[in-house]
From TrEMBL:
Assigned keywords, A-Z: NADP, Oxidoreductase, Porphyrin biosynthesis
Protein name as it appears in the record: Glutamyl-tRNA reductase
GO molecular function: glutamyl-tRNA reductase activity; NADP binding
Organism for this UniProt entry: gamma proteobacterium HTCC2207
Domain Tetrapyrrole biosynthesis glutamyl-tRNA reductase dimerisation: 318-414
Binding-site residues for substrate, renumbered to this chain: 49-52, 106, 111-113, 117
Binding, NADP(+): 186-191
Record-listed E.C. numbers: 1.2.1.70
Function: Catalyzes the NADPH-dependent reduction of glutamyl-tRNA(Glu) to glutamate 1-semialdehyde (GSA).
Length: 418
């Protein structure tokens, strides 16, 4: 029995195939319990995200058994799964789980969300009753490794998303975002991420402008923001210290004239603008205006690429940490493995002791000489304790197994010269 990490991810399977193997949160517990029935016991946990589906298992299941269960569970041809799965065992499996938890195996290197997702997979497995002692030890080791990577490297400190890079640049322009008002143009996924990052940075206030007011209001409600129509931007632009735009418009939504007018009303107080859209939402001529800091998606990509290089450097350091933690887990498992051997050895010796002491006490009750009883007790204990080791050593010598003889000499601290 051993630890196993089995699954597919963004490097081995297409997005369509990953979608077919995804598990909705509401069916994970039932799926885990069904898996154990099909695999005839063990321990199991399941991680399912948009970029990966992975099974963490402790037991005697083979690759084929796991392949068969997952393919059958999802109604996908076995050959499709066989072409894109991977499987790691024991220390390599634990090392893989540590890399996943640390964001080292993510599509976006070092992204932090996966740590919460893997903690959730552990919690759901505990709730389902399918995570026991062995997987618990693996998860705790993975959490410890991920925390070390976060605290001892800079892998998560350099933004590598357009949304985060926009907010990070804003922080460089404004000393205190608590006094700043942001105008976000659009209400798609990127703007939602920008709003989330701004809120995390404790931005003073946010206004969301969108072509559809209901969608702007829906997004604004999540961030205690104000919602306006796209057509009302010009009235609100003078109050905006930060403008970040990402719409699907084929024409610019902000021109040089509108920005110039807003700057006059602001008495030329600086304005930070980020145009994430392709094609552009903000006319290029805006960049020629004094007191405007305008960045495009191409500018952000330069920032992101530089940060990715910094993350890769941090990832190299993180791999050393993962190796250390994986080795630590292996040492711990080896120390735990010998516990069972020590317990069995102690039990066998105790059995002999109880048996011989019982005989000695019976002899004393019959009136035999105490000195003779003690001598017999000591001799019987010595003979019985020596019998099996002596027999095994003779057999090892006959078979030329010097390693067994050397191990015995080392174990008992014997003088090899005699």
């Amino acid at each position: 029995m051993g630890i196993l990490a089995f699954g597919i991810n963004h490097t081995t399977a297409s997005v369509d195939l990953r979608g077919r193997f995804a598990f909705a949160p509401e069916i994970v517990i039932e799926s885990l319990q069904q898996a154990l029935e099909n695999l005839h016991g063990g321990e199991i946990a399941l991680l399912s995200t948009c970029n990966r589906t992975e099974i963490y298992f402790h037991g005697e299941a083979s690759d084929e058994q796991l392949l068969g269960w997952l393919a059958d569970c999802k109604g996908v041809a076995l050959e499709q799964l066989r072409d894109c799965y991977y499987c790691y065992r024991d220390q390599q499996a634990v090392r893989h789980i540590m890399c996943v938890a640390s964001g080292l195996d993510s599509l976006v290197l070092g992204e932090p969300q996966i740590f919460g997702q893997i903690k959730s997979a552990y919690a759901v497995g505990r709730e389902a009753g399918t995570v026991g002692t062995h997987l618990n030890q693996v998860f705790q080791s993975a959490f410890a490794a991920a925390k070390r990577v976060r605290s001892e490297t800079a892998i998560g400190q350099n933004p590598v998303s357009v949304a985060y890079a926009s907010v990070s640049l804003a922080e460089q322009i404004f000393a205190d975002l608590k006094q700043v008002h942001a105008l976000l143009i659009g209400a798609g996924e990127t703007i939602e991420l920008v709003a989330r990052h701004l809120r995390d940075k404790q931005i003073g206030s946010i206004t969301v402008a969108n072509r559809t007011l209901s969608r702007a209001q829906e997004l604004a409600a999540d961030f205690s923001a104000n919602a306006i129509l796209l057509s009302d931007i010009h009235d609100h632009l003078p109050q905006a210290d930060i403008v970040i735009s990402s719409t699907a418009s084929q024409l610019p939504v902000l021109g040089k004239g509108a920005v110039e007018s807003a700057l006059k009303k602001r008495r030329h107080k600086p304005m930070f603008m980020v145009d994430i859209a392709v094609p552009r939402d903000i006319e290029p001529e805006v960049e020629t205006l004094d007191d405007v800091y305008l960045y495009t998606v191409d500018d952000l990509q330069e920032v992101i690429q530089g940060n990715l290089r910094a993350r890769q450097t941090a990832a190299d350091v993180a791999q050393v940490i993962i190796d250390q933690e994986a080795d630590s887990w292996s040492r711990q498992q080896r120390s735990l493995a010998v516990v069972d051997t020590i317990r069995a050895f102690r039990d066998s010796v105790e059995k002999i002791r109880v048996e011989e002491v019982g005989k000695a006490l019976l002899s004393l009750q019959r009136g035999q000489d105490s000195e003779s009883v003690i001598e017999t007790l000591a001799r019987n204990l010595t003979n019985k304790l020596m019998h099996k080791p002596t027999t095994r050593l003779k057999q090892a010598s006959e078979e030329g197994r010097d390693d067994t003889i050397n191990a015995t000499q080392d174990l008992f601290g014997l003088d090899k010269k005699r």
